[in-house]
Structure formats: C-alpha cells, structure tokens
Amino acid sequence: MPAPMFVGRASEATSASAAQKVDVAVVGAGFAGLYLLHRLRQGGFTTLALDEAGDVGGTWYWNRYPGARCDVQTVDYSYTFDPELDSAWTWSEKYATQPEILRYLDFVADRYDLRRQIRFHTRVTAANWDEAAERWLLTTDNGATVSCRFYIMATGCLSSPKPPEINGVSDFKGEVYFTGRWPHEEVKLVGKRVAVIGTGSSGIQAIPLIAEQADHLTVFQRTPNFVLPAHNGAVPADRVALLQSNRAGYREQARWSLAGVPWPRQMVFSWQLSDAERRERFEKAWAKGDLVYMLSQLWADQGVDVDGNALVAELFREKIRAIVKDPKTAEALSPYDHPVGAKRPCLDTNYYATYNRSNVTLVNLREEPIKSITASGITTDQRTYDVDVIVFATGFDAMTGAVMAVHPIAGRGGKLLSDVWANGPQTYLGLTVAGFPNLFMITGPGSPSVLSNMVVSIEQHVDWIIDRLIAMREAGFTTIEATETAQAGWARHMADCSMLTLHRLANTWYTGANVPGKAQGVMPYTGGVGPYRGICNEVVSRGTLGFRLSGPNVSQQCNDGEVVRLQPDVRLVLNLLADMKLPPIESLGAQGARAFVTELNAGRPAGRLVGEVVDGILLGTDGPLPYRLYRPATPGPHPIVVYFHGGGWVFGDQQSDDPFCRDMCRRSGMIFVSVGYRHAPEHRFPTAAEDGYAAARWIVEHAAELGGMPGSVLVAGWSAGGNIAAVTCQLARDRGGPEISGQLLICPITDCIFDRPSYNENATGYFLTRSLMYWFWDIYCSPADHTDQRVSPLRGKLAGLPPAFVVTCEFDPLRDEGIAYAEALSAVGVPVEQLQAGGHFHASFTMVDVVTTGVAGRARMAEALRRFARLPHNAGQSDEGARPDQKASPPDVRAAAG
Ligand code: N01
User: Which ligand 1 atom sits nearest the alpha carbon of residue 222?
Assistant: First the structure.
C-alpha cells in the first residue's frame, strides 16, 4: 500500500492501528464513486471505496425492476470528463435501459481499472472523527476498519428505500418486491395477480410491463403524477448532430445551464402567447418526449408562476382524458394538487394507455385508503383485493436517507450528524457540514443534485473537491471545515432560492414530505446548475470563503463569510449588468440617461394583461400632464391608486413602470393611474412635487369619470416617485385635500442626508449608486432647497398623515432613509408597516418577472393597499409564495420578499 499523502498532526489513533489506512475513503461505487476513484488516483491520493453492492453501479445496481431506464437523454446522461471516453461509448437508445447503463459503468470501471480500489459487499457501520489524529475511522461489516484523512459520501440521493408504512406487510403470504431492491434473478409474474403500490417514476416505468405479464394488475395510487411519453427509440439525430458538431462546447453549455442539459432559457411569457401558440408549444414538447425540454421550453413563467404553470397542467390533463377511455379512471389519474414539476414528473412508455387494458384496475387511495395488508392481499376501507404479488414502488428516504440513516456519523466532539440534521439537513454548498471536518458529500442536500442531470452535478462536485484536496496538500493544510456563518448563510440562500420555483408548493420527496416525521423543507438547491457552479468557483476565488483550513506546519486560515447575500435573481441581474460594462448613467447627461433607460425598458418582459389600459391627459398646475390608467378586469368602480414612477426626478414617464403597474393593478384589484410628471433639469424643484399633488387632486375630482370610487385616492411611488407620493400626502394634509387613504412608498427618497450607513455600504455595485444619487439631487434642486419638506419629507411635519406601507431594500443606498421615514411616521402615531427586504436591490420590486423573488413582496404591498382602501383580504394574491398548508401564516419578510 502506498504511503499516505497527508502527514498527521498527532500520533495516529491507536484504535486505528489495525486499520487500512488511506488518504481518502469513499462510500459508493456508482457514477459518483467511480469518477471520484479516477480523479483521486490521478491526483496521487491513496484511496478505497466501500459499497454494499456486489459490483459497481450504485442506483443502477439496485434498481432492476422491469422498465427501469434513465429519464435524462443518454447523450446527456454520460460522463464528460474524458473526451475519449465520451466518444468511445455509443448508446443504443434515447433512454437507456438499466442493463445498458450498468454495462456502461462496467466499461468505465474496466477502462480506468477502478475495481481494485473497491471493497464490495461492505457496509460502513460507523464513522467517527478522531480529533487527535485528525482522521476518520470507519467501522465496516466486512474486513478491516478504515482510517482516512478525508471521507467522501458518494451514496446517491435516492438509494435508501423507505418502508411502505402500511400495517401488516409481514402478514402477506405471497411474494413481495421493492422496486429499489429488485432481485437479480428473473421475477416471473405471468399468470399472477399483482398489486403495485406507488405511482412515482419507478411505478410508472414498471406498471406497463407488469401489466403485459400479469393475469391481473391492480395499481394503488395515492397521488397522480404528470407523466410524459418518452417516445423512446434511437438517440435523436438532432441532439447527436448538435453534440458532434462541437462536443466540448455542448458539454460546457450543459455545465452552465439550469438543469445540466443544454437548452436555452425561455424568454417568452405565457401571456404573450395565444392559446393556439401555447398549445403548439406543448404539442411539440409532448412529441419530443424530453422532461427537461417540457419543464423549461414552453414559456418563461411555467416553472416560477402559478398561473403560467396552471396552463401547462391543464394541457397535461387534456392528454390524460384523451388517452384513458374510462372518464372516472382518467379523472383519478389527473393531478390537481401540485404544479407541474413541483413533484418529480415522470417519463413513460404506454403508462396511461395501460389503464385501457381489461386486466388493469386503478384503485384511487384518496377515495379508499389502504387499511392494511393481510395474508391474502390488500384491504382498503371499502374492500379487499386478493393478490399473489405485491410490488412496493413506494420510493426513498431521499437526499438525507443514504447519508444519515445508513450509519452513525460522529464529527467534532462526538456530535452526530443525525442530531445536527434533526430539523432538516444543514450544509455548506451541499458539500460539507460545519462540525464535520474533512467530510464531503457528492450531490448532497443543498446542491442542485436531483433537480439536475446528475452526471453533470456529480462531475462538478468531484472536480471541486479533488481540486481542493490538491490545493490543500500543496499549501500544507490537512483539515478543512465549513464555518457556522457560511453554513447559516447558505441555508438562507437556499430559502431565498426556493422562492424561485414552485417546489415549495407540493408535498414531495424533494421536501421530505414522503417520510412520516421527517423535517420538511426544499432539500435540493433550486437556483440552477450554472449559478451554483459559479458560486462554488467564487468560494475558491475568494480565498476558500467560509472554510477553516489547518495543518501541522502552517497557520490556520479562515476566510469567514457568506458567499451569497443577494437574492439569487438579483445576483443574476447584477452580474449581467456588470458584464455589460455600462458607463455610469450620470456620465450620459440627462438626455443620454433618458435614452439609455428607454432602451433598457424596451428589453424587459412585457407586462401582464389587465382589464384595460387607457392613456389620457389630466390638468396640472401649469397645464396638461399625461397619464396612463390601468383598470382591473373585475367590475368597478375600483379604488384609485395615483402612482409616481421612479427616475430620480430626471427620467421616466407614465409608461416606464408599466409592468409594475399592471402587476399591482391585478394583485390589488385597483385602478392604477401612472402620472407623467415633469422632470429636471427642464423643470427643477418643486415642479415634480407640485405636479404630483396637482395630479392627485385632479384624479380625486374626476374619480367617477375614471371608473374609480369617489372621495379619496391612495398614492404610491417608487424611488423619486416614492418621494413625490410622500410629499403629496403632506401637501394634501396641509392644503385641505384631497383625501388620501393610504401611501405605499417603495425605496423612497426621503431626506437630504448622504452619510447614513446604507449610502456608504451600498455606494457602488447595486445599480443605483451614491454618485448617481448626488447627480439626481444636483439636477433637481439647489442645496438651499434640500431641506424643504417638498423634497425631504422626513423634515416635514409627519403627524396626521395617512397610513403607510414602506418598502426598503437591503442593498440600496436609500435603505436607511426609507427606514428612518417609516420610524418617524410611526413615532408620531401614523400606522406604518415596513417591508425590509433582505437581499434585494433598489429595482427588485419593479423588475416584475425578472426578479421573481419580488413576487411575495408585491403581494404584501397589494394587500396593504386593499387594507387602506377597506377592501376585503384577497387570499389568492397575498398567499402566493406560501405553501398551501401555510396559507394562514404571516409572510416572513426574508422568505417572502427578501
Ligand atoms: O418514488 P416516488 P420512485 N401508501 O417517491 C407512493 C428517481 N427515479 O421510486 O406521491 C400508498 O417518486 C407515493 O405516493 P405519494 C426519480 O427522481 C428515476 O417512483 O407520496 N402509496 C408515490 O406515488 C424519482 O422521482 C428514474 O402520495 C405510497 C410512490 O409511492 C425518484 O427516483 C426511475 C405510500 C413513490 O414514488 C423516486 O421515484 C425511477 C403508502 N404508504 C426513479 N408510500 C429514472 O427514470 C409511498 N407511496 C431515472
């Protein structure tokens, strides 16, 4: 055995003296374990892999049930680390069968001579961190203990089958099979009465083939799934051509894509397409038979917005009704309780059509739950089904099961991983856990893992870990451990990311809901493969951020911190803007800045449909001002919100916050009138303020003509528009009207003090810069006017103002003056609600459909406006973004909006 590459700090544990000593021990010999072994050997590390199975394959070793196949196309479901390997293997089908995938892994193991480093038929029974020796000691049920410097869990996300949780399983006298532990010998089902419990991916693949053999098949379904036909056959020529035209480019694109398969990002939103166009897109996806394509290529809002998703769900249900002849069965097979993609959708061959066979019965467990399993079959609360065979396709204790339940893992101070994870998995990057030095997981909870093409994610994790081990060795470090700060930051980022998708709206194995008593929360990273890869790279480029590194002859290194503090989509927007290397807006001059903003707005997604949009002219103090009115589709009259756009008193117009006004009009059910007030430098202070006030007065006077409720209005505004809204409230109070029943101030300018902390902390890098703010102030008003309440409302009298909802964003220079205004209002008795949005920037809430994580914040704003206008609570809107079972709970500021 070669000498270990890492020199220990203390004498190596006596208990480990008889142990097999290696630099790195790996558990698992599937896709992840095999690549690890290869890279470790290339890196000059001594290594050993342990696997309970009798050979390589991991999940593909165990899951041998009839119909088992991959459901990511084989061109994508392959290793890419070695271009020669990549072209040396040719798949025979679009979706390979389990035996073919196993042959592939066999081929890989032989090609790189990996088996000699694997101890098969071996289960790790305990793993303990030896603090003095700084090594892991692994006890096994076969052969010597193992002492290793690093311990890597390549155990897979879906490898620990969960018990079926049904009474009486052991009473059954017939044959019992689990899809996740299918026998290696042939299972004969011909002429038998077979029951399948479970209709996830495994059940759905197995059911059509079992139906062909069985005398009668009874399927017990608790939750129907969305199922797409695989249209299996030859590997599609277009994908092969794409791959072969530029293999390296194709693979690189996959690495930076959202799901690890190179499809472009959809930019068209559902509401921009007609019914016919949507149907055409859906039919194309149905014919393609590719889950990633179906889940990502229809329209941009299909995976992030409940309405955009509902359109896909209905098209799926139409298909089910068209295929399944018995309407009652078709209805039972139609999912209504979760968005498409929130629960893992499945790929099938003849699944729905199987229910047209005379030897197949579907039992809807929602109508007749299973009471118990008996000696002769399955008893529901309505009847007994006698069967000869029961197949449990009941799934896995996913993501954490294989890491946690398989064996006790004790880290620093003897702390057990199962205790640390009692309330859900805590990790840094899904790779490591604070308190567990030198322990790594491949595709662990907190990484994209099961929401991606696993092979792409496995390669990225393996490469990242081995590169770290090599860098540590070169620098003389022997231990690496995540810090608590970094781990807590990752948990928050995970929660932020979970707002980007609809996974939180379904009870699934993604959230731990399939295992009774398991802590619940979205376990995989939902921010996408490419963004995740970028973050992992950033951790390295920022001095191994969030890790403590130590070694016997070097000083400890700990560059502590959180790698992502921004909301995930804000981070993407800001990165995109940084890549564009735009000149500072203030360097363009007022005209140039206006042209720039107009161009920027032209590239944003179009706003959603509302009942009506009307352009008109109102009469201001010095003459006409344009406005744009957004009317809800519901019958009026509606309360009116007078809205002032952002733009630093210099640019923008009544159309420039169009998507925001549309969104708020829909959510609040109110008329929004966006006012085209005049701008500096042509019209300096106090023109904007006076125009705002005059507009509010005119609109109240003409409320009935506009279709609004008479008597009063509400005001709202963003940025400089928030300033005008706040000022309008003060002027209306002081000048005897109009009556304003509430104010919504989004990131408002409220004061002329420029040294509050947020002005310095967020001076650059977050789009609205300190120097741009200086420029706005200079153009709008002279220093002598700075303290006038009509530009610095924080300096005005605040008592007697209408109730306010004040929104501020963490990464905004204006944050602290917004908070100061809210606190000052509150101090004089004005009812105030604040939304301090963590991780957001100045434009987060107005970049509708770009910054998706702003949705819940806008829902709260709309609800506040409805309260001000004394309209009833609009549950459908304000609860968007909350899990169905948590609808009544008050939204958490961070999780909901920031
Ligand atoms: O497991 P599942 P799976 N009584 O958890 C039901 C991957 N995979 O093995 O939904 C009655 O999806 C349960 O009902 P419900 C893929 O990622 C990939 O099928 O909890 N029913 C559900 O219908 C997949 O998502 C491939 O209400 C019970 C089913 O059993 C993941 O593995 C192939 C029950 C379990 O479905 C898991 O798939 C196969 C009970 N007590 C799997 N308990 C590829 O093609 C559970 N159920 C690559």
Answer: 27
Distance CA 753, CA 761 (A): 15
Residue 531: is the preceding peptide bond cis (ω within 30°)? no
For residue 729, the CA-to-ligand 1 centroid distance in Å is 57
Tokens of residue 111, six digits: 């090609």
3-state DSSP assignment of residue 554: strand
Q: How far apart are the first and last CA of the chain?
A: 53
Q: What is the pLDDT of residues 126-163, one digit of tens each?
A: 999 999 999 999 999 999 999 999 999 999 999 889 98
Interval 191-227: pLDDT, tens: 999 999 999 999 999 999 999 999 999 999 999 999 9
Nearest to 263 by CA among 224, 291, 230: 291
**Helix or strand or coil: residue 50?**
strand
The atom of ligand 1 lying closest to the CA of 365 is 11
Q: Helix or strand or coil: residue 266?
A: coil
- CB–CB of 288/231 below 8 Å? yes
- Distance between Cα 33 and ligand 1 center (Å): 24
Closest residue CA from atom 15 of ligand 1: 223
CA gap 872, 875 in Å, rounded: 9
Q: Which residue has the tokens 């928030």?
A: 722
Provide the percentage of residues in the chain whose pLDDT is more than 70.
95
| Interatomic CA distance for residues 776 and 314, integer angstroms | 49
Nearest atom in ligand 1 to 180's CA: 9
Burial class (CB in 10 A: 0-12, 13-18, 19+), 588: middle
Where would I find the H helices in 112-144?
none
Neighbouring residues of 82: CB distance < 8 A, sequence distance ≥ 6: none
268's tokens: 């068209």
Tell me the pTM.
0.92
Q: Which of 62, 76, 394 to mutate to test the pocket of ligand 1 (most atoms within 8 A of CB)?
A: 394
Residues 189-208 as b or e (16 or more Cβ within 10 Å = b) = beebbbbbbbbbbbbbbbbb
Mean pLDDT of 83-109: 95
Q: Which amino acid is at 471?
A: A
- Which residues have any ligand 1 atom within 6 Å of their CB? 69-71, 158, 164-166, 179, 197-203, 205, 220, 222-223, 344, 365, 370, 393-396, 450, 509, 514
User: Of the residues 61, 62, 76, 158, which should be mutated to test ligand 1's pocket, given the most ligand atoms within 8 Å of the CB?
Assistant: 158
Residues 893 and 877: their CA atoms lie apart, in Å, by: 16
Identify the DSSP state of 577: H
**Cα 630 to Cα 272: distance, rounded to the nearest angstrom:** 18
Using an 8 Å Cβ cutoff, are 773 and 648 in contact? yes
Tokens representing 224 are: 């129907």
Q: How far apart are CA 356 and CA 447, in angstroms?
A: 41
Q: Which two tokens stand for residue 497?
A: 């990311």
Q: Is 148 helix (H, G, I), strand (E, B) or coil?
A: strand
Task: Pick from 343, 344, 449 the residue to mutate for probing ligand 1's pocket: most ligand atoms within 8 Å of its CB.
Answer: 344
In the chain, how many H helices and how many E strands?
A: 27, 29
Read off φ and ψ for residue 224, nearest 5 degrees.
Answer: -70, 155
Give the number of other CB atoms < 10 A from CB of residue 76: 23
Q: Are 681 and 593 in contact (CB under 8 A)?
A: no
